[in-house]
Structures are given as C-alpha cells and as structure tokens.
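ENTRY TYPE: protein
WANTED: fold as tokens:
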Amino acid sequence: MTSGALAIRRLVISGIASLVFLAGCGGGSYQSINNQSPNPTPTITTILPNGKFAGGAAFTLTISGTNFVAASMVTFGGSAPATTFVNSTLLTAAIPAASLVSSGTLAVTVTNPAPGGGTSNSVNFTIAISVNPVPTIRYLIPSCVPAGEQFMNSGNIPLQVGGANFVDSSVLRWNGTDRPTLGVIMQFGLLNAQISASDIAAAGTAAVTVFNPGPGGGISNSLPFTITPGAVEPQSIAVDPTGKFAYVANADSCAGAVYISTYTINPTTGALTSSGPPLSAQDDGTAFVTVDPFGKFAYVVNGGDGINSSGSVVTYSINGTTGALTSGAISGDCDSDACHPSSMFVHPSGKFAYVTYGANEPNSIAMYSIDATTGALTSIGTIAVEGNASSVAVDPTGKFAYVTTDLKFDGTGIESVSMYAIDATTGVLASTGTIATGTKPASVTVDPSGKFAYVANSNSNDVSMYTINATTGALTSIGTIAAGTKPASVTVDPSGKFAYVANSNSNDVSMYTINGTTGALTPIGMIDAGMNPSSIAVHPSGKFAYVTNFNSNDVSMYSIDAATGELTLIGTIGT
C-alpha cells in the first residue's frame, strides 16, 4: 500500500469514528455534521381571506398553522409570492392583483426547506366571479334647482344620491345619459356626481337613475329632479333706497340652499323685471334679505338647516347700474355669535347692523360694525333677550332699537317688544325694558317720523300700536287693531300716512291709514295676495308695494293711491 492510499484510508476511518462518536453523544439523538437540527414539516390550519372576486386588487394573505420557520415559503396557485415570517404559527404573503385575473380554485401550501422540512397540506383559495347588485335610490340632494342656476357661481351642480347597493363602478344617469360620478361612499349608501349647467338650463323634470355594470348589476329605480321656472318659497323682499332694484330671498326647501332673485323696477309702472337666474345664497334655511341705507350692500340671513349649517349672514355688493349682486364675506355661526339667525336691520348711518338669533339657544341680538368699503360685518358682541327673537327695527334717528320676542320652544320667555338705546359711537345696545305685545309677535316696524311703532301678532291676528318717547325711546301701548289671519309682516309707507300688513293664512293684505297725531291705525280694506304672503315692502317713492307669496312662488305688485293709500294689483311675477 502506498503512502497516499494509506493517508486516505486513515482519513476515512477517522471520519467514521468521528461520526460514531457524535452519534453516541446527547442521549442517542441524531445530529448533522455541522450540528444543525432538521426543519419540521409545516401544517396549515386556516387562511384569511379564503377567497376574493376576480379582478380584485392586490392583498395580504394570512396563513395560520404550525411548524413555520424563518425560511418557510408560501405557494399560491403554483406561484411563489413574497412571504413574511411572523412566528412559528403565522405567516403572511403578498398576493399581487395578477393572481386574481380569472375565477377558479387555487391551492395554498407552505414549504420548509431541507434539511428535513417538506410541504404542508393544501388549503383551497376560491376566486369567484363578482356579481354586482341592482342599485336602489331613495333621495336626491338637491331634488330641484331653479332653471339657469349656477351653484356657488360655478358651472357644475353637485348632486348627492342616497340609496343602497352602490359599487365602486356605479354611474349616475341623467335622463338615461351618464354623468360624471365623483365617488361612492358605500358604507353610508351615498353616491356623489355632477350635473352641468346645460342640464338645468330650462324648466322641466329629469329622471335620475344609477347604473351598476355587469356581471350582474342593472339600472335602479328612477327619481324625479325638478328644474323650476324660478326660485321657490319666497320669504322676504327688500327694495334698494334708489328704488331701482328689488331682491327676494327664497327658501327653496327642495334644494336646501337659499336663492336670491334680483329684479329691476320700472320707475313709471312699478313693474318688476327679472334680472336673470336666481343666485345661490351659499347656505341653507329660511331666509331674510335687507339692503343698507346707501344701496351699496345687500345682506341675506340664512337660518341654517340644523344639520349641515347653523346659519349665517352673507354680504353682497350691489352693482349700482345693473343691481347685480356679488357675494362677499360670510358672518355669524354657532361658534362665534349665536345660532340660526332670522332677521336683520342696518342702522340708518350704515355703520352698524343688528341680527336676531332665536331658533335655538342662545336667544339674543348680535351686534356688528360694518366695513364701509366691503360691507363685511365684524361682531361687536351680543345682548340676550327674554324669548325667541324674531324681528328687529331701528328708529329713523338711529337712537333706539326694538326687537320682537316670542315664547321659546320650551314654553319659557315672554311675548313682547324688547327696547334698547343705541350708543351712537360704538353701535352697542343697552336694554331699556320690555313691553307686552299680542300673541306670537312676528314683525316690528317704526314709522318714518320715529313717533310710532307697530307689531304684527301672528297668533292673535292683530297689530299692536305704540307711541315712542322721543327722549328715551320707550314704547307706550295705544291698543291693538284686527288684521287678517296669521299676519306675518308689517310696514309703513315713506310718507308715514299708511300701513300695510301681509296676512299669511288669509292670503291678503290689510290696509290702514295712520293718524299723524296719535299713531292709531284705521282700516281701509283688504286686498287679495297670492298663496301665503310672507313679506311686504313699499317702494321709496311711496307709489308701489310688493308682497312675496310663499306657496304660489311669486311676487304680487301693487300701485298705491296717494290720497287714500289703497292698493291696486298691477300683476305678479315669478321668483
């Protein structure tokens, strides 16, 4: 035997001896040459999820079981996705969207590498064909808009559809034609879409449906969307001090938002002519409109809907040539001044404004200073009232303010007129007492001489009459006089000779002469208005009067007899 062969033989014998020695150590257990334990065979108990729809997005598969190791690998339908070892009983695998292209059943296994190791049991993962449901629609927000309206002065109108069975690929259809669908919030059953200005250019009714594509799917039931000839539910009217323009605030309950209709006034006949489509007032709720004494700004009071809005006051600048409104600052909300404003009066100086807040607590008057350039309102505080504040007026001298208050919702408070002195420098109000009214006072006005005040009482169907102390502003009752049913608004003509009351339930206007010495009213008759008159205004010339009719969606126009004060209807115009 050569020396080389002998060396090899010794090495082999030595290795065998070493192997035998190792095998005899550790109580007879097996160990590899490099002292590494063999991997166990893995077992799968559950997978989550255990199925998806075909065409779905990438997802993470969670595998629970036993005997997982750091080097365990998941097989998903024959492919090897990226596997993450969490612990010996938990793995995750990143499944790409490409693995979900078609329906079928895929095997999921886990493999542990050698030494030892092996492949687990197989668990099925099901890829099903997605079948979309047929959608159902229950409501539209808004459900109507005035023809030609441009929401927030933009070209498109957002439309929200509430219902069920919407999917990511649901599409809104307008008279059977697809419209841009901005997104679906499936957990709330909401679909957001847009309709264009051309869709609402003319009055009529459109059919709104929602379509879910296949497989499955289909077209929902249809709901009507109404394009009205103009704004609806007119609440308040104001005429600018030049007598050239009139503005109407419309509640538009079906649309939620308040709209402002603008008119030019024929100086000879008093007839109103619409200046174009109504303008969105940028908020919700019952509205009131007024114009500052110099005709520079209009203010719209939005009561809010109690859900999405607590109300606001929106400032508009007035184009002196066309009367067109341009929106400006928004003031007043629950976080600053108060909640749910209802009416407003601008001080004769144009420097201050007063807004009633009374639908909810706090029941108060908000006081504002007015920016002479922009018309924007800046709060200068609030002053509490003893009931639900409904209407405010300031005497022509600007020294005194009067606020009607009704009972609160809980039955507390008083039905009265709260009286205030006005600080000429700051505009701040100081209470000087209260005086009783009739039942449910709705509107207060002061005659142009500043000598008398009148309150329309909605539930007692009468008008409270008062004289005003020129020094203190205190009111003294001189009695009441009957009006129609549910008087809603009272005003006095610029000459101080006549008073008019719009009666909302008897659908007419009560006419009175005013005794220039005592302030007492004398009835001179009644004249028909539209359905549920809500507000009345007299032209600065004293020649014409205008009444908004809540349920007939129009404005009644009247001429005024200069000698008798009697009204004569000259026509109506839609809002």
